[in-house]
Amino acid sequence: MTVYTDRPWLGRYTDGLPADITADHATMLELFRASVARAPDTEAIRYFDGVLTVAELDAASDSLAVALAAHGFAAGDRLAVYTQNNPAFVIALLGAWKAGGAAVAINPMNKARELTYLLADSGASALLCLDELYESVARDVVREGEGVQVHTVITCSALDWQTRGDPRLFAGAQGTKRPLGTFDLLELLDDYAGRHPHAPAPQPDDVAILTYTSGTTGVPKGAMNTHANLAFNSQTYREWMGLTPEDSVLGVAPLFHITGLVGHVGVALLLPCPLVLAHRFEPNVVIDAIREHRPTFTVGAITVFIALAGVDGVGKEDFASFRMLYSGGAPIAPAVTDRFEEQTGLYIHNIYGLTETSSPSHGVPLGARAPVDPNSGALSIGVPVFNTVVRILDEEGNELPVGEVGEIATSGPEVVPGYWNKPEATAESLPGGELRTGDVGFMDADGWFYIVDRKKDMINAAGYKVWPREVEDVLYGHPAVREAAVVGVPDEYRGETVKAFVSLRPGVETTEQELIDFCRQRMAAYKYPRSVEFIDELPKTTTGKILRRELRDGAAAG
């Protein structure tokens, strides 16, 4: 691994983790127990007007672990967690570990077909579920879903641990009404209060949580994020961002997603420091939470920051408590970071990783600014994090030299050992333990890495390769563009041609031809979009990634 001695900040991040991080705390549960011993009265979770201290979180998760064991949950079992960003998620995570098992993170937007697959594939024996999701989705899945083995269902309410009941979020919340056939979380915690679990402590290589990939190229696969994976990258967040117990973390990423699990929950349990939660991402509600709780750090998709900056009346004073912001999960155009900094006074540091790398594998060091590649216009995703080796490979798996474009392949302590019960997929994506990411990029002569695009999103226009990311970055430079996505659509003459979908900034107008001309003046003739479609909101995942696939499929269908 190259260390650039003329760039001290870069050398700091390639020399490995600091010496004070030892193998003594190699699991997330050990890290949390050390926090309990060190700072039991520190606030662990702030949820609207509700607060849980570290000691209270420890006691609640103890009670849940005992309750799970009393209802048949054994060491090695899986607890599926199907809820939003609320305290129940964190309690469930710790409770599963203390009971000797693992958690299964489930997207609360999943419907019956998706939930059935995840419960059956993971073999979960217990489910902790938001009450409204149980009533609308999970009840029939648990009873009738093919292959589903859940025998214990625990329900929670979005209204638990707070008293405000914000109508912008909680219209469907049921409060104290427990669905028939389930155990109520608060009642269980009360019934088993003061009792301590006796399950074997998890080991570093044990699975801590199954996080399912999006399934864009097939069925979702359960990445086996181990305790060692999560412990390593929780410490990476702490050291990379210089976080201390004096900080507080704003939970804008979904906790079921790897960014929320590690960049929110993991680092907050490690420090420990307050984790500010607001049930789900609603820009006005999150701005209220920022104004009330004054968090100092967060990491989220760039679409989150675009939405927050777009709230009426938001200004620099609203973001004044933050020491730093990081963005990952979706590409960032340089024009977007510039615009956000002008409005809020904060520079957004890039970070990059996948579910299979337990959140970050690369990041822009704190205090540094990501360079922009002069040829593609791409903003760098940063440099590899601690103890991580990254190579650029051609289609035959050969390593490419500096500046050459190929697939990014990553090795390090954060890389998962494989996919749950899928040895063929593991062998294909993780040969020899090195992750083939499916992302196309390159490294420059100074050690900075850049993402060009996803391999599957490349557009072939009359034999020329067009990477959507490059066209999107140009579009973001237009003052009227709020969000942009570029896809390839069928074309009789060129085979594929470039189409852009654009949402506009409030109060700003433009035309299709103006945007086409804007791009034509700034890029090669085969790259610029031949058509532009205006839509109010681009489709996104719950983590803020724009769904090019959905746009592409819709365009192909006419």
Task: Report on the architecture of this protein.
- With 558 residues, the chain is of the alpha/beta class.
- Among the domains are: 1-16 and 232-412 and 439-457, Rossmann fold, CATH 3.40.50; 459-556, GMP Synthetase, Chain A, domain 3 (2-Layer Sandwich).
- Helix content is 31%, strand content 22%.
- Strands 7-6-5-3-4-8-9 form a seven-stranded mixed beta sheet, with helices on both faces. A five-stranded mixed beta sheet has the order 12-13-14-15-16, with helices on both faces.
- The longest helix has 17 residues, at 54-70.
- It starts with 7 loop residues before the first helix and ends with a helix.
- 52% of the residues are buried.
- Mean pLDDT is 89; it is low at 1-25.
Residue stretches low in confidence (pLDDT < 50, at least 5 long) are 1-25
At the first level of CATH, the class of the domain at 1-16 and 232-412 and 439-457 is Alpha Beta
Mean pLDDT: 89
Number of strands: 25
User: How would the global form be characterised?
Assistant: globular
Largest sheet data: 7 strands, mixed
- Percent in strands: 15-25%
Structural class: alpha/beta
The CATH topology of the domain at 1-16 and 232-412 and 439-457: Rossmann fold
Please name the fourth-level CATH homologous superfamily of the domain at 1-16 and 232-412 and 439-457. Answer: ANL, N-terminal domain
**If helices are DSSP runs of H or I spanning 4 or more residues, what is the number of helices?**
16
Residue share in helices? 25-40%
Q: Any guess at the CATH architecture of the domain at 1-16 and 232-412 and 439-457?
A: 3-Layer(aba) Sandwich
Neighbour order of strands in the largest sheet? 7-6-5-3-4-8-9
Query: What would you report as the Rg, rounded to the nearest angstrom?
Result: 23 Å
How far the N terminus sits from the C terminus, by CA atoms, comes to 49 Å
